Amino acid sequence: MKKLVLSLIAVSALAFTTQAQTEKGNFLLGGNIQLSTSKDDGASKSDVGFAIIPSVGYFVSDNFAIGTGIGYQYNKDYTQGATSALGFSTQTSAFVVSPFARYYKGLNESFKFFGQLSVPMAFGNTKVGDAEGDNMTKVSKDNTVGVALSPGFAFFPSKNFGIELSVQGISYNDVSYKDANDNDNGGNKNFNIGANFFNPKLGVQFYF
Q: What is the pTM of this model?
């Protein structure tokens, strides 16, 4: 399997003094863009996925911001069968809302650690189609509510530019499904603990 994953997080903030990046009264503007593609050996098409989730936050006190992200995510996967008639495709899409609170702890003016607590929620549906990705039919409505705690590190080389690196440390998700007729169709809950240091998120920040 060949896989290409591109993850970009762009965050910006209004800043007016040397240390204004995280001072009370300033705004945190940014977003999350993720693109991915993968292809199984023998598959006629590549799986694709993307998410666009812009966010805005406000520093209610020095080094402490609250805000939310609002956006959209989409994935389409192809499963090959022994014959083309047995193959199928799956498409998921969702509207995403992710309130968050973030606290910074400064080592000095250029380096700060932070922790972000978020409550990601997704409201969407799943469709199934043929092996070529056509004739899609909705089979379920999917709702997800989660909680995630993400530690990170921010580097501010200048007043108007910053770079951050973060990992997901603790997360919990509760997923529920309904069929096409709005009848309950089960769900699942999962809890993960332990940062995956081999899958970090790299952010580029611009301050205005």
A: 0.76
